[in-house]
Amino acid sequence: MSTIKEVKSEVSTPETFVCEAPNDMVKGESWTDNIKYLVVGIMFGIVFVKAEIISWFRIQEMFRLQSFHMYGVIGSAVVVGMISIFLIKKFNIKTITGEVVVFHPKTFQKGQVYGGLIFGLGWAITGACPGPIFAQIGSGYVVVLVTLLSAIAGTWTYGRIKGSLPN
Amino acid sequence: MNQIIEFILQPWPWYVAGPLIGLTVPTLLLIGNKSFGISSSLRHVCAACIPANIPFFKYDWKKEIWNLVFVLGVFFGGIIATNFLENPNDFVLSEATIADLKGLGITDFAGLMPADLFSIETLFSFKGFLFFVLGGFLVGFGTRYAGGCTSGHAIMGLSNLQLPSLIATCCFMVGGFAMTHLIMPVIFRLF
Question: How many CA within 13 A on the CB side of residue A81?
């Protein structure tokens, strides 16, 4: 008895594309399909501003343990997300186009520690996670454009030196 | 009706905002099989604009364009909320935080951001370099090294009961505490 291992050909891409927010939809999407994500993004941006999550002050409050607000926001978001995913898995709920919802188990890598610490340092000083950055700019804080450009430069630098970092 | 409008204009409490953010997870999964995560948008920008033949940026970013459309939406959401749904009252910050930040030299507590820092004048100073240029760099470098940010790890990852995401989230917090309590006092003493 011999087992035949399937080896995926990776000729087209030089490394396997791993992304924390991948597009798992099998069917292709047109430009008009993308309007859905624009609408969800707009709702999301409004929540960011109205709950003052984009505020540098709120992030300071959080890291100084002087307000429950941010902990309440993140905590209740996780609880609602957990229940949702539990229900999707339990009842095998399909997407609106009838596809099976794809989940990606994450494997532990040292980067989650080192990168996590580095992001934490940046989060506290800028008062911005990647999401709120966009809402801050929309709110008229034009200097945050520099934060965004630097964040893109940081991402690019990571991609450039990735091979020589512990992971 | 007026009460509803009044409620919307007030700052939203955590028990309204948190569940709404949590609902983004099933919404994106069900409308298009998309896992929630925002920092990947930064990578897609690199892949689209400056791939520079780096393997990490050689992939079909057009397939991931939804993520860029999503953050464009977040930007528009910021415009809408700030211009049409603005809180008519003063920004309320914890007294203890105000006292701590006054100790660091921050004087303006009127808006969502400290005007002392988030101004064009600051931008072209050493302070601005640390807060925006270096800070932004750490955000972009760190999130990609960690494989996600507050959305991808803390919300999507924890919702899917992923241990690596719990580890990453704890590290985000440790980094933030270290910056706030150990490094920021030193930075503010520089000016």
Answer: 29
| Structural tokens at position B9 | 């204009």
**Inter-chain contact A109–B164, Cβ cutoff 8 Å?**
yes
Residue pLDDT, tens place only, B58-100: 999 999 999 999 999 999 999 999 999 999 888 999 999 999 9
Write the residue in B37, B56, B179 that is nearest to A159 by C-beta. Answer: B56
Contacts of A49 in chain B (CB under 8 A): 77-78, 81-82, 85, 112
Rounded CA-CA distance A97/A92 in Å is 14
Distance of CA A11 to the CA centre of its chain: 28
Coil, helix or strand at residue A64 = coil
Tokens of A142: 């034009």
Place of tokens 């186009």: A97
| pTM more than 0.90 | yes
The ipTM is: 0.95
Separation of CA A45 from chain center: 14
Q: Determine the residue type at B87.
A: N
For chain A, state the CA radius of gyration: 20
Compute the distance between CA of residue A66 and CA of residue B96 in angstroms, rounded to an integer. Answer: 7
From chain B, pick out residues whose CB is under 8 angstroms from the CB of A43.
20, 73, 77
Confidence of residue A11 (pLDDT cuts 50, 70, 90): very low
| pLDDT tens digits along B159-172 | 999 999 999 999 99
